[in-house]
From TrEMBL:
Record's protein name: Uncharacterized protein LOC107424584 isoform X4
Name of the gene: LOC107424584
UniProt-listed Gene3D superfamilies: FAD/NAD(P)-binding domain (3.50.50.60)
InterPro entries according to UniProt: FAD/NAD-bd_sf
């Protein structure tokens, strides 16, 4: 509760309704997980704890990488002392990396590498036989992306989402009382307590850079100049370097790499206000009001791996998925501060939607309404009369996410999370340690290592690099 941040844990982690009248509810406890999975496969129920244990091992190894800045080639003052410090940092990093790898053991290390390089389908097929379980778990590998479960390297994104934790509990997704904006408020309260002065509604038009090539602050859209020898940008790398920094100050290969980075996104977010909770016809849990299924991540259109793959193929062919894959959450099932009594807020992460569909335009109100209706009708198949409960909705397509939130391409992670865009390659090769070709300018957003997610790791790591550089000067 410090600084006003209150996390609300769901009663269950995921709920997958099926059209044949069955459902899969996970996350109540280990015993219930075994019973739930046994409805589809006894073998899978026995394998699931081993699968989770292995992922926990991999997450523990990844914790070290998430909290470390990359041992990047040193771009600063090449004095003897700085070169010595740089070599010492790299030696410490690689020694720690080796120690963590040895703690895994060769067998698990090989499995870890296999997971990083493999398609999600291969990873899950190796463990399970039930399509419903595999499709439920595969949802974490595709969210926010334009990749298929058959795409090599998508196994890493599966792991990336499992790494999250709440109060030390791994793979727990919590809601924030008051909505996601409460996180920003809590962070700002903490910053103010530490002496920060925060200005909002102040659009930056460009960075101010001296002739020496060092940053000297920012110029606001209203003409105000804010002077500073240190600037941190959590805008996307594309926005930062293509829109805010004079191109003449940047190396050609760097600029080319930024310009050609993958910002593709298949996600459209739909926020829905409803006058009652959805009732899933497969679910007879005896909860007339809020039940564990309402607090979980509800997976719509994820009964089989084939469904997910077909949805992606549609988008690759240039059209929004005919049967979208959806992650549905009902934050008001836990948070009573965001809706009136009896009313609820439903959040839909829908996939896949191309940035520029070939069969229409997101600027066309009829086209937008058609896609929203498609999503609502699909939910109706699982929860009859969902559409009739809708009071209103707001839809954010990839172009909307780009325009309203500055997310290049509508990508919620500030860039693709493929293996070619991680660690040493994030945001681009040669500049993964939060420093940039403009001295005094640092990157601290999700476009930097270790990538997207509401975890703050890029900002924390970048801050440590800035503090380190300040002590050296």
């Amino acid at each position: 509760m410090r600084h006003g941040l209150k996390l609300l844990k769901p009663m269950a982690s995921s709920f997958t309704p099926c059209l044949d009248g069955r459902y899969l509810l996970l996350g109540l406890n280990d015993q219930r997980d075994h019973l739930e999975i046994s409805k589809f496969s006894r073998l899978d129920a026995d394998a699931y704890p081993r699968y989770e244990i292995q992922l926990q091992k991999f997450c523990k190894f990844m914790d070290f990488l998430l909290d470390s800045r990359t041992p990047e080639t040193f771009h600063g003052d090449s004095s003897f002392n700085n070169q010595l410090r740089d070599k010492w940092h790299k030696s410490v990093f690689w020694a720690s990396c080796l120690r963590h790898a040895l703690s895994l053991g060769q067998k698990d290390m090989v499995e870890f590498i296999d997971l990083l390089l493999s398609p999600t389908s291969k990873v899950l097929n190796k463990w399970f036989e039930s399509d419903v379980l595999k499709a439920t778990l595969a949802g974490d590998a595709i969210i926010g992306s334009m990749v298929s479960i058959q795409t090599s390297g998508s196994g890493y994104v599966l792991l990336h989402h499992v790494m999250g934790e709440t109060d030390g509990d791994r793979n727990i997704w919590s809601h924030v009382e008051g909505g996601m904006g409460s996180i920003s408020v809590a962070i700002s309260n903490a910053a103010k307590e530490a002496g920060a002065y925060i200005v909002t509604d102040a659009e930056v038009s460009q960075l101010v850079v001296e002739e020496s090539g060092r940053v000297n602050g920012v110029l606001l859209a209203d003409g105000t100049q804010v002077y500073s020898s240190i600037v941190l940008s959590n805008a996307t790398p594309y926005t930062t370097f293509m829109d805010l920094v004079p191109h003449s100050l940047l190396p050609e290969d760097f600029l080319r790499a930024i310009k050609n980075s993958d910002y593709s996104s298949g996600t459209t977010k739909i926020n829905v206000a409803v006058d009652r909770l959805p009732h899933f016809q497969c679910c007879k849990l005896g909860h007339p009001e809020v039940g564990p299924q309402h607090t979980a991540t509800i997976r719509i259109g994820s009964e089989s791996m084939e469904e997910i793959d077909s949805a992606c193929q549609d988008a690759w062919n240039g059209i929004p998925s005919r049967r979208p894959v959806m992650e549905m959450t009902i934050p008001s099932s836990l948070d009573k501060t965001i809706s009136s009594p009896g009313k609820h807020v439903v959040s839909l992460f829908t996939q896949y939607t191309p940035y520029k569909p070939s069969d229409g335009s997101w600027e066309d109100p009829t086209y937008r309404e058609s896609y929203a209706s498609r999503c609502f009708k699909l939910i109706d198949e699982y929860a009859p009369n969902f559409s009739s409960s809708i009071i209103g909705y707001d839809m954010l397509t990839p172009p909307d996410l780009e325009r309203e939130f500055g997310l290049t391409g509508g990508n919620i992670f500030h860039g693709a999370m493929g293996l070619d865009s991680l660690f040493f390659m994030r945001p681009v090769k040669g500049w993964s340690d939060y420093r940039t070709p403009v001295r005094g300018l640092y990157m601290c957003g999700s476009g930097s290592h270790p990538g997207g997610g509401v975890m703050g790791a890029p900002g924390r790591n970048a801050a440590l690099v800035v503090l380190h550089d300040l002590t050296q000067h």
